[in-house]
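Entry:
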Amino acid sequence: MPSPEILPLRLTQPRWSAPTEKPRPLPRGLLPQLLARGRLLLCLDYDGTLSEITPNLAEAVPLKRARIAIESLAASPDRILVAVVSGRDIGTVRKLLGLARGIMFAGIHGLELAGADGVALMAEGVEESLGDLQMVRDFLAREVPAGRGFVVEDKRLALALHYRCAAPAEARPILARVEEFVARETPRLKLLKGKMVYEMLPRAAGGKGRAVHWFVEQVGEPRPQVAYFGDDTTDEDAFSALRSDTSALTVLVGPERPSFARYRVNDPSAVADILAELALALSSRGGGRRP
């Protein structure tokens, strides 16, 4: 696949306070009911939603049932549009998912966006942040010990420090130094705290909520029904952005905790079951093929 064209895109910054309420269990059959009301925009986080969280980032492949269902759903764009929203860069997510045709993507927390036609857009102001990113890259090379359970993920336009496999006593002071360095030395960057990961990226990144609004804009009128599944604290931006849409279906994936999502499921396996159920409902209504 040829490299997509990069176009400037101005995005707004996410603003939300911490959630206080816990979502309730997702009732069986609710997503097919949403599809019955009209065209559906299905937004899916990747790690921890379509794939299990893995210590080795390259091994985070989607559950087979989920991948089969997504391929089936994406074949009926007149009924349903699939968008994958990730903190990873779009190229990596496409490769891991093994699918691209008919699917929209948001990468690096909305810093990159791509429609179903493959044309990519990049937020304005990114180039101005490359110097600050290099400073963080050099800092991590100096401060993060090799072979101690830390993984530095270099996305070129962002950096992530994963510490899932590091000893907590060793991770705490390193994370504190990273946080202090970013705040003091890199004014063009912001730091996002996810599940066992610190991410440093340009302030130009609009967040996953803005990415969802961009997908809605691409679909146009009539406005689609929206569903969003995500597991991480960074997905709260999308959950929060959809709170004013009373018809939107927002689903937290993982253990019970306060969230802006309305509903919750246990794990990626439950997500795969729901996607398979949706693909079956779509097939029975005369669209797509049976997974």
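The helical segments are 30-36, 64-74, 90-97, 130-143, 168-185, 208-219, 236-241, 268-284.
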